[in-house]
Amino acid sequence: MTDGPWLVVGLGNPGPQYARNRHNVGQMVLDELARRTGATFGARASGLLSRRPQAAVAEARLGVLPGGAPGPRVVLAKPTTYMNVSGGPVAALAKYYGVEPERVVMVHDELDIPFADVRLKRGGGEGGHNGLRDTTKALGTKEYVRVRVGIGRPPGRQDPADFVLKDFSTTEAKDLPWLLDHAADAVEAVVLEGLENAQQRYHTKA
């Protein structure tokens, strides 16, 4: 494993009207990671994108290594663009910090996973997720890590596009803090232990 940083990105839409939507659960997970590390999101880091910042960025050490040393360097990022044009900010951050795609971790909502489950993978399709599709296009590869946070399918005949842009239900909201904590743990496991070890831990129902 190299000494370079990891780039951990939480997908979502900008603005308070979207902040608690299902589609923004990736950014909620990033807020939990920032809380754990004591990091604060800023409009830019070290002059990055100084003219037109397109991401809120925080730099930190994530977790603790065996022996008690601080964990790897991470760049936590929440794009301030809309979901379907997330790729530009991700690619710009990766270039600025010198992060290879295999050390990019995208945290996002996933319709095809039951609510409160978390799944991890590298590469593969985007499953109709526009944020991932644009990221793949901008990075020029699918070979980045995805932390897929389950939000479940919409009930009845509700349009999935409407479903993801709604806040979590009252019942779901009770379990949301646990889900955010669980997903943040999964991100830590990827960074500290590697993807395969993390998959072994998180691919069983909690």
UniProtKB/TrEMBL annotation:
One of its GO terms (biological process) is rescue of stalled ribosome. It comes from Cellulomonas persica. InterPro entries: Pept_tRNA_hydro, Pept_tRNA_hydro_CS, Pept_tRNA_hydro_sf. PANTHER family: PEPTIDYL-TRNA HYDROLASE (PTHR17224). It is found in: Cytoplasm. Belongs to the PTH family. Pfam families: Pept_tRNA_hydro. It comes from the Bacteria. This is Peptidyl-tRNA hydrolase. The keyword Transmembrane does not apply. Keywords: Cytoplasm, Hydrolase, RNA-binding, tRNA-binding. GO terms for cellular component: cytoplasm. The active site is at H23 (proton acceptor). The record marks N13 as: Discriminates between blocked and unblocked aminoacyl-tRNA. GO terms for molecular function: peptidyl-tRNA hydrolase activity; tRNA binding. It catalyses: an N-acyl-L-alpha-aminoacyl-tRNA + H2O = an N-acyl-L-amino acid + a tRNA + H(+). Monomer. Catalyzes the release of premature peptidyl moieties from peptidyl-tRNA molecules trapped in stalled 50S ribosomal subunits, and thus maintains levels of free tRNAs and 50S ribosomes. Hydrolyzes ribosome-free peptidyl-tRNAs (with 1 or more amino acids incorporated), which drop off the ribosome during protein synthesis, or as a result of ribosome stalling. The record marks D109 as: Stabilizes the basic form of H active site to accept a proton. TRNA binds at Y18, Y82, N84, N130. The keyword Coiled coil does not apply.
